[in-house]
Amino acid sequence: MVATLVSAFVVGVAFSGSALDWTAEAGPVETATVCLYGVVILAGLLVWRQGQAIGALVGVAALLMALCELDAHAAFTRFGVFSTRLYARPDVPLAEKIAAATAVALLAVLVILALRSAWRDLTGRAPVPAATLAVVVVFGLVLKQIDALPRQLHGLGLPLSEGLLSVSKAVEEIGEMALPLLLALALVQLPHRRRR
């Protein structure tokens, strides 16, 4: 995690002139990250089919993180599907509210089922992958804070220079590319077990 952040910082400093092009929304780095999530989703499904319940959990986590990376939560509705404004405002069509609530409910059920099936492995039989998944959660939260920092500083009247903004964006986007790799590492760390 620290190595990723340091490497991303170095890249951001070294390529500060073009870093914003590489790390733009839907740019090369984000596209590569989403592709990596796709590979992890498939690998998670394969591991799950071989009888390892954590494979399903990793696959679901990769799916949710890929959707987040693509900003899918706000792509099809006026407001994000997790925003109370979507459900509270009278000018939002009822059909849109129902579709958004249904999507959120389906995702919640998927997460609960995946967690429930993998719980025994997470709490006993596969402690190393569980620790790696915990690192994914912590690292993801750190990256979210790095993403929000320029906006927070701007709100305080302390806007970042273009060079610092390039470095910040590089650290965030390249750091996010490490998340699917950590999910893949959790799959690799699973003890080999034949399907019953």
Describe the protein.
This protein is mostly helical and about 200 residues long. Helices cover about 75% and strands about 0% of the residues. The protein contains 8 helices and no strands. Helix 3 (about 30-50) packs parallel to helix 8 (about 160-190), helix 4 runs antiparallel to helix 8 and helix 7 (about 125-155) runs antiparallel to helix 8. The mean pLDDT is about 85.
Derived structural class: mainly alpha
First-residue to last-residue Cα separation: 36 Å
Give the CA-based shape.
globular
Q: List the secondary-structure elements in sequence, H or E.
A: HHHHHHHH
The proportion of residues in beta strands is under 5%
User: Low-confidence parts lasting 5 or more residues at pLDDT below 50?
Assistant: none
Q: Which value, in Å, is the CA radius of gyration?
A: 19 Å
The chain-level mean pLDDT equals: 84
Main sheet?
none
Helix content: over 70%
What's the total count of β strands?
0
Number of helices: 8
What topology emerges from the helices and strands here?
Blueprint: H1 2-14, H2 19-22, H3 28-49, H4 53-69, H5 84-88, H6 94-125, H7 127-155, H8 162-188
Helix pairs in contact: 1-8, 3-4, 3-8, 4-6, 4-8, 7-8
Briefly characterize the structure.
This protein is mostly helical and 196 residues long. 76% of the residues lie in helices and 0% in strands.
Task: Give the key terms.
196 residues, mainly alpha, 76% helix, globular
